[in-house]
């Protein structure tokens, strides 16, 4: 089934940073083997770019980047993050990688308290670093860290400087997640205007729960690449979630993305298992309850036509429909569940079974299909013995 609404469909690149920004989250330290397993899954999923890590950070990061490059570099663009310092760029080049993601902050607060650099010095550093990487034959993506808290005029200067230096793409990070969709749309529109046709990317954090919405707004404003992580893992409240961004772009806005969406659920589970970070029950697209139904009116609708209460099919993302029994159940759902177990009851018997199920659920008991079967057999045999 195609897009739910028609909009101009254009290709949007999916830049996965699960193995870099995702792994930066406190408590997530993946082994090389684990990183390679996830990288293979991401390549199989069909993302356009895998940010493998930060090669200058440690020996392990360096080796893991190299290993990922060996394993999937022929299928997908593998990129490494680097500060705008020669030693980091050299270390990244030493991995044999073809793409580098160079970043340096542009906001007043980062210049004053972290970098202790002037705006002029930062502009110089942007030019030097991007130029140096380009002179070594790399594809270069530049990020003005903390872009969304940067003085707009200076941000546009930084973007233009990177492009003058030869940057192939410019990524606009909402580093501490302070954007809302309308404001981000306006900002990205201005950046696209000065980008001289280069791809503009967006990298959104979820501090106010707006990372996915802001990412979509960025694409609507002209960005054609989105940084995402599986399950939305990442610094603090995380990043824009790959599964949410991909499905929203495809199904709500009609953009083309190369991701095999039916592999989203399995990818989510793999990352959850290896990082040890559980997927929230109510998580959009890949949560256990994303296609779960109990209330009678919903179950009845879903039985007749799943589109009554499911905007997309679970199969489209590799997830599963779950019909549960409880205090909110209705007769249509109960009839279907029992019929699937080979038990056919009259409406009166079904009503009696349903009444007992609701009473059982009211005690706090999680009602199972086996409970329903036992009650149904009791009710039907009572009638037979009557
Ligand atoms: C928004 C983000 O996610 S940014 C990416 C964050 N990721 C990481 O930090 C990856 C893991 N980091 C590391 O392993 C280490 O921080 C390293 C190897 C990068 C640097 O380690 P250290 O030398 O111990 O420095 P430390 O991390 O304490 O401080 C960062 C230094 O880099 C400088 N710096 C930070 N960002 C940048 C940048 N983009 N370009 C240039 N210099 C930078 C800081 O000003 C500070 O410089 P100083 O040492 O001269 O004061
Ligand atoms: C390095 C950049 C892109 C980043 O992770 C951020 O600013 O959030």
In short:
By secondary structure, this protein is an alpha/beta fold. It is built from 15 helices and 10 strands.
Q: Would you mind describing this structure in some detail?
A:
The chain has 386 residues and is α/β, with parallel strands linked by helices. The chain folds into two domains: 13-275, TIM Barrel (Alpha-Beta Barrel), CATH 3.20.20.70; 292-385, no CATH class. It has 15 helices and ten strands. The strands form two sheets. An eight-stranded parallel beta barrel has the order 1-2-3-4-5-6-7-8, surrounded by ten helices. The protein has a two-stranded parallel ribbon with strand order 9-10. The N and C termini lie far apart (52 Å). Acetyl coenzyme *A is lined by residues 21, 24, 54, 56-57, 83-85, 103-104, 114-115, 145, 175, 235. Residues 21, 24, 54, 56-57, 83-85, 103-104, 114-115, 145, 175, 235 line the site of acetyl coenzyme *A (ACO).
Classify the helix fraction into a percent range.
Answer: 40-55%
- What spatial form do the alpha-carbon principal axes imply? elongated
Q: Which sheet architecture does the biggest sheet show?
A: 8 strands, parallel, barrel
Mean pLDDT: 96
- Unreliable residue runs: none
C-alpha end-to-end distance: 52 Å
CATH topology of the largest domain: TIM Barrel
Structural class: alpha/beta
Number of helices: 15
Query: How many domains make up the 3D coordinates?
Result: 2
Instruction: Return Rg in Å.
Output: 25 Å
Order of helices and strands: EHHEHEHEHHEHEHEHEHHEHEHHH
Q: What is the CATH architecture term of the largest domain?
A: Alpha-Beta Barrel
Beta-strand proportion: 5-15%
Keywords: Acyltransferase, Amino-acid biosynthesis, Branched-chain amino acid biosynthesis, Leucine biosynthesis, Transferase
Enzyme class: transferase
Protein name: 2-isopropylmalate synthase
Cofactor: a divalent metal cation
């Amino acid at each position: 089934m195609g897009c739910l609404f028609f909009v101009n469909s254009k290709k949007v690149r999916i830049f996965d940073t699960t193995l870099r920004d995702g792994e930066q989250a406190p408590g997530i330290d993946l082994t090389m083997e684990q990183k390679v397993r996830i990288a293979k899954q991401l390549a199989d999923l069909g993302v356009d770019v895998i940010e493998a890590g930060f090669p200058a950070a440690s020996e392990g990061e360096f080796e893991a980047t190299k290993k990922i490059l060996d394993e999937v570099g022929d299928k997908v663009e593998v990129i490494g993050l680097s500060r705008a310092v020669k030693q980091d760029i050299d270390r990244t080049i030493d991995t044999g990688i073809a793409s580098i993601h160079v970043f340096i902050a542009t906001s007043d607060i980062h210049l004053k308290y972290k970098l202790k650099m002037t705006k002029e010095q930062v502009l110089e550093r942007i030019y030097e670093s991007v130029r140096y990487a380009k002179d070594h034959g790399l594809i270069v993506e530049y990020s003005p860290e903390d872009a969304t808290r940067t003085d707009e005029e200076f941000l546009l200067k930084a973007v233009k400087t990177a492009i003058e230096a030869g940057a192939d793409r410019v990524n606009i990070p909402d580093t501490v997640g302070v954007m809302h969709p309308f404001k981000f749309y306006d900002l990205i529109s201005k950046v696209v205007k000065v980008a001289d046709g280069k791809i503009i990317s967006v990298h959104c954090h979820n501090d106010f729960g707006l990372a996915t919405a802001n990412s979509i707004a960025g694409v609507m404003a002209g960005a054609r690449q989105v940084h995402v992580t599986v399950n939305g893992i990442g610094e603090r409240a995380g990043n824009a979630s790959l599964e949410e961004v991909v499905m929203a772009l495809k199904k709500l806005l009609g953009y083309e993305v190369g991701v095999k969406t039916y592999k989203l659920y399995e990818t989510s589970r793999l990352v959850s298992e290896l990082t040890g970070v559980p997927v929230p029950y109510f998580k959009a697209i890949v949560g256990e309850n994303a296609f779960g139904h109990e209330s009678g009116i919903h179950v009845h609708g879903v039985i007749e036509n799943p589109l009554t209460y499911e905007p997309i099919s679970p199969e489209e993302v590799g997830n599963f429909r779950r019909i549960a029994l409880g205090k909110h159940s209705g007769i249509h759902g109960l009839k279907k569940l029992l019929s699937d177990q080979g038990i056919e009851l009259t409406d009166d018997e079904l009503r009696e079974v349903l009444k007992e199920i609701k009473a059982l659920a009211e005690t706090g008991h999680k009602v199972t299909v086996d409970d329903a079967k036992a009650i149904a057999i009791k009710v039907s045999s009572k009638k037979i013995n009557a």
